[in-house]
Design goal:
- This protein has 182 residues and is mostly beta strands.
- The protein has one helix at 2-18, and strands at residues 27-42, 47-63, 70-79, 84-87, 90-109, 112-129, 132-151, 154-163, 170-181.
- Helices cover 9% and strands 70% of the residues.
- Strand 4 (84-87) and strand 5 (90-109) form a beta hairpin.
- The relative contact order is 0.21.
């Protein structure tokens, strides 16, 4: 009985230590995601609080420099859709999109990553109501947090991002992304 238990334990330990690591390695990666954006603003004639489907695409490079944390640099494009709502009897629609650049601080735990993200977004914002429209552009900061899962060179991310867009009270996005690491 003890011999069978010892052989079983040896086989299990050999299998655990001989499998390749499931965490992400350093290098270039490409990804895309879908999510839900929410825009909240006081329009002067009432409170605008609406959401829409959003998407993003990104490219990044991950650095495995320090043993317990990884760093990454990422550039991307985000489109928050066209959230619309009736405010004060008028149909109000916002359109927001732009390019992003961010740094990530990643805590890898085997095949899972927990990370924080901070960067800037160069955005274009269009608002329309009752036949009038206005457009503005700018560059403002954003931050976020997420969790990722990696298997081989494929990764899945769930994340939350908060954007500080000038003249808009709140812009946020929840997303689910897939990425491929080269």
């Amino acid at each position: 009985m003890n011999r069978k238990l010892l052989i079983t334990l040896a086989v299990v330990l050999l299998g655990v230590f001989s499998t390749p690591p499931a965490d992400a390695a350093s290098g270039l990666y490409l990804g895309a995601g879908l999510g839900r954006s929410t825009v909240k603003d006081d329009t002067g004639s009432g409170e605008f609080d609406a959401g829409d489907a959003a998407y993003k695409a990104f490219v990044g490079y991950r650095f495995n420099i320090i043993p317990i944390i990884d760093l990454a640099a990422e550039a991307g494009y985000t489109d928050f859709g066209k959230p619309s709502q009736s405010v004060g009897g008028q149909n109000v629609q916002f359109k927001l999109h732009g390019a992003t650049a961010a740094g990530l601080l990643i805590f890898p735990l085997g095949p899972f990553d927990f990370y924080g993200k901070a960067g800037v977004m160069s955005w274009s914002f269009d608002a329309s109501a009752a036949g009038t429209s206005s457009s503005t552009t700018g560059t403002d900061p954003f931050y976020g947090a997420g969790v990722g899962f990696y298997f081989w060179k494929i990764g899945i991310r769930a994340e939350y991002e908060q954007y500080k867009i000038k003249d808009v009270d709140r812009v946020q996005m929840y997303s689910l992304s897939a990425l491929f690491q080269f």
